[in-house]
Amino acid sequence: MTKFDVLPSHVWPRSATRATNGEVTIAGVSLADLAQEFGTPLFVIDEADFRSRCQDMAAAFGGGENVHYASKAFLTRKVANWVAEEGLSLDVASENELRLALAADFPAERITVHGNNKSDGFLHLCVEAQVGHVVLDNHDEIARLDAVAAELGQSQDVLVRVKPGVEAHTHEMIATAHEDQKFGFSLASGSAFQAAEEAIAANNIRLVGLHCHVGSQVFDAQGFNMAAERVLGLMEQIVTSQPAEVANLLTILDLGGGYGIAYTANDESLDVAAVAADLHEKVTKSAESLGLATPTVMVEPGRAIAGPATVTVYEVGAIKDVHISDNETRRYLAVDGGMSDNIRPALYGAEYDIRLVNRTSDAKLTNTRVVGAHCESGDILINAADLPADIHSGDLVALAATGAYCYAMASNYNMFGKPAVVSVRDGVVSPMLRRQTVSDFLALEA
Amino acid sequence: MTKFDVLPSHVWPRSATRATNGEVTIAGVSLADLAQEFGTPLFVIDEADFRSRCQDMAAAFGGGENVHYASKAFLTRKVANWVAEEGLSLDVASENELRLALAADFPAERITVHGNNKSDGFLHLCVEAQVGHVVLDNHDEIARLDAVAAELGQSQDVLVRVKPGVEAHTHEMIATAHEDQKFGFSLASGSAFQAAEEAIAANNIRLVGLHCHVGSQVFDAQGFNMAAERVLGLMEQIVTSQPAEVANLLTILDLGGGYGIAYTANDESLDVAAVAADLHEKVTKSAESLGLATPTVMVEPGRAIAGPATVTVYEVGAIKDVHISDNETRRYLAVDGGMSDNIRPALYGAEYDIRLVNRTSDAKLTNTRVVGAHCESGDILINAADLPADIHSGDLVALAATGAYCYAMASNYNMFGKPAVVSVRDGVVSPMLRRQTVSDFLALEA
């Protein structure tokens, strides 16, 4: 096998391998066979990979109950079942995510609810369903949630989302902890302290912790640690200003998500255990120095669990060589999906690893741009990759690490139906989502 | 009324006005009433506006048959019916767009089919349905289409898509006429001439014209003229190399789409008649100087027809003032939609005009960022607008000129259902697309 034929193991699903016939298999199932049966584009999920990352996170963070899988990365009832079975908790960020989780019978007490703009109806559903925690995001919401809980005769546990002013190094579009953003209460301005006081003063909600989120695609504990230190400072301020029976409720430090994954062979991979250990050590020390009991650290990984488990299989179509300068040619290789099933390259400049999956190739490599089939020149999946020059129409290629924010952000641009999704485990194939067709679009018409 | 209360008429639908009670109406229907009945976010289409822009285009370009509405901007059966009734032609760019057009009984002979990666099945459907033109985009496709037509015992009229190497000034992501892109055959390299020869040599396809596309959001004829001149040069080359019976078939110069619209009050608006006149004059002169009969100029506007007809109505939710520097505050105003129903601000940096639509306001204006309800800090609809400081939760706002590439590119991120779409005309409301719910997502699950 050439270097190109070898799947970078830190990027591809854990069970992905190249069979002796040259085909790539996941959980022992050939991607070519799956393409044949379900068509392309096709999302293929390695169920064991997904579950193993749940287990890694649970082990690193002291138990699954401390790890909230971030639904927004990718959610179906089956996925919610996997998360529940692995003993993890769940983070939802919209009314419909909550509805789906409840439709999957996910234990409500293990659900944390986010959102910068929760409607009264959404808050009502939260309390009625008895979700574990609602994360308060603005002052109005405190009074509204209190009123809803009063109306339902219940008490709702809450966290206050704090903007600690820390920004982990990441792409600007997906950084979330600096002050100039829509989420949370400012620590610096005193707004977060005030929110905590309001929550404590409200009769039908119980403040049990603080939440913050430092960014996306983070690979070390530094950003988390800095944020944790600041948020613990706030916790100390709250604890010392309150009677013991209130202060003692404040036991959760939720540090949000943002754990990175490797998208390309050159990317580093996350050492979850090391980051978690570093983070726990710093939190323990910080709490100690502030005279606080060590809080329970909670986290909300989405991408780090769902991302690496999934690949997207495409069929190669049109191939075109374009002279881009006097002595330079770029090959345009078109596949049968594109920005409708993966908006991340166009939206964030995201990069992916691509491999030929129906065979190996020892052809020389050529500078290739992988594009989709949409009527838009910005419909680019991979800006520049060295791919074997003998790839031809009908070959199958796959992009790895497409499990998070690809299907979840998929559109129907150019009336492309969302692809089918199948999961594989121990040689067994389980359809998860069927492909959308024109009938689905027509069904919405009046 | 304050300046903010006045709708910029070159941005808003032609029938949009502010009623004496302060509410904005379209075709005499109050947006507040529509929000009440159909919920928010809600797309509201001014049917007469859409139709009038079809008429303007038809008048400017010598008849509706020369104007192909670009489906990708926004397509439903109802929209296809409007386009057909106004006598326009239709441009589709995917198999599903074609299927939808056929489901709407759009006359196949008035359909032009685009695509950089058409499958054999797609080509088969084109020939079988007897579409007017297939636009050839790569060499392989010529032989494949010829084979499909032979198999069906039919002859298929085609255009050859040419890259003239002209790039109209526009946002990089949506510029499409330079050489380094996926669409078309290079003029400079001789590839386009060769494609024309191949098409002419094929037994079951007839070359009837040439196609090019210079970009998006173009407001003057300059780019079109330069491209037209170059493509006419190619046409002359083909015509003089072929016998008269072949040369005489070559009568169409399709200059594609790209006609701009005003998104904000400061944007210029397109003078369709002036651009068309300028373009026709240059084409006539160029053809004359090359000794060619003046070709029929065809165009493919999508945004310029669908864009200005539609507004998106949102309900205001959480409002938050954030200190972004010592003496500067930014107001974050959250609405109940966001990047799921309008990805263009995040994807292209697109700007929009926003107005309060359930009432007027004479409150002082304050620096406001309009954000969505998604769990992502990049979920920004309007980066900076001066909005009345008294806007409160429960108010209704609307973004104008959202008829193109908003619903068409909508996602279900955070499991948001696609919004409902209604059209209004002469005081009558017609539901066009119902809102998606969690049930629609569950229906896809195996």
UniProtKB/TrEMBL annotation, chains A, B:
Active-site residues from the entry: C375
CDD domains membership: PLPDE_III_DapDC (cd06828)
Domain of life: Bacteria
PROSITE patterns: ODR_DC_2_1 (PS00878), ODR_DC_2_2 (PS00879)
SUPFAM superfamilies assigned to the protein according to its UniProt record, in alphabetical order: Alanine racemase C-terminal domain-like (SSF50621), PLP-binding barrel (SSF51419)
Annotated binding of substrate, by residue: R303, R344, Y348, E376, Y405
Cofactor(s), names only, from the UniProt record: pyridoxal 5'-phosphate
Database matches in InterPro entries: Ala_racemase/Decarboxylase_C (IPR009006), DAP_deCOOHase_LysA (IPR002986), De-COase2_CS (IPR022657), De-COase2_N (IPR022644), De-COase2_pyr-phos_BS (IPR022653), Orn/DAP/Arg_de-COase (IPR000183), PLP-binding_barrel (IPR029066)
Residue sites binding pyridoxal 5'-phosphate per the record: G258, E300, P301, G302, R303, Y405
EC number from the UniProt entry: 4.1.1.20
Keyword hit for Secreted: no
Catalysed transformations (reactions): meso-2,6-diaminopimelate + H(+) = L-lysine + CO2
Record domain Orn/DAP/Arg decarboxylase 2 N-terminal: where: 48-306
Annotated metabolic or biological route of this protein: Amino-acid biosynthesis; L-lysine biosynthesis via DAP pathway; L-lysine from DL-2,6-diaminopimelate: step 1/1
Matching PANTHER family: DIAMINOPIMELATE DECARBOXYLASE (PTHR43727), GROUP IV DECARBOXYLASE (PTHR43727:SF2)
Similarity annotation: Belongs to the Orn/Lys/Arg decarboxylase class-II family. LysA subfamily.
Function: Specifically catalyzes the decarboxylation of meso-diaminopimelate (meso-DAP) to L-lysine.
Descriptive protein name: Diaminopimelate decarboxylase
Source species: Corynebacterium epidermidicanis
